[in-house]
Amino acid sequence: MYIIKVKGKAKIPDYIQIRDENFVLVAYFRADRPMKNPEKFGLEGKEEALQKLIDELPFGKLQKLEL
Predict the structure, then answer these.
(1) Do residues 26 and 38 lie in contact, with contact meaning Cβ atoms separated by under 8 Å?
(2) Do the bridges between strand 25-30 and strand 2-6 make them parallel or antiparallel, or are there none, so unpaired?
(3) pLDDT of residue 7
(4) Cβ contacts of 7-15, under 8 Å, gap ≥ 24
(5) 5 in Cβ contact with 31 (< 8 Å)
(6) HEC profile for the chain?
(7) Are 19 and 4 in contact (CB under 8 A)?
(8) Any residues with CB less than 8 A from the CB of 25 and at least 6 apart, and which?
(9) How far apart are CA 7 and CA 1, in angstroms?
(10) What is the pLDDT along the chain (67 residues), one digit of tens a residue?
C-alpha cells in the first residue's frame, strides 16, 4: 500500500490517502483525525505508528506504507 498527504486550502483540512498496489484509493481521511476501521487494511494495533508517520509525512510525496 501507498500513502500520500494532501495539503488543504483555506477551510479545507489536510487529508491522507491510502492507495493499494494498483494505486486505487482505498482510504481517505483527515490528517488530524484517526483512521476509521484500521483492521480493514491490516493496520490494527499500528494506529500510533501510523499517526506518527502522518505527522512526519511531507505533503504531496507518495510513499510506500511500511509500518
Answers:
(1) no
(2) unpaired
(3) 94
(4) 7/59, 7/60, 14/59
(5) yes
(6) CEEEEECCCCCCCCEEEEECCCCCEEEEEECCCCCCCHHHHCCCCCHHHHHHHHHHCCECCCEECCC
(7) yes
(8) 17, 18, 19
(9) 20
(10) 999 999 999 888 999 999 999 999 998 999 888 778 888 877 888 888 888 999 999 999 999 988 7
Predicted confidence at residue 60, as pLDDT, reads: 93
The grid coordinates listed for 54 are 502522518
Give which of 4, 6, 49, 1 is closest to 21, Cα–Cα: 1
Size of the chain in residues: 67
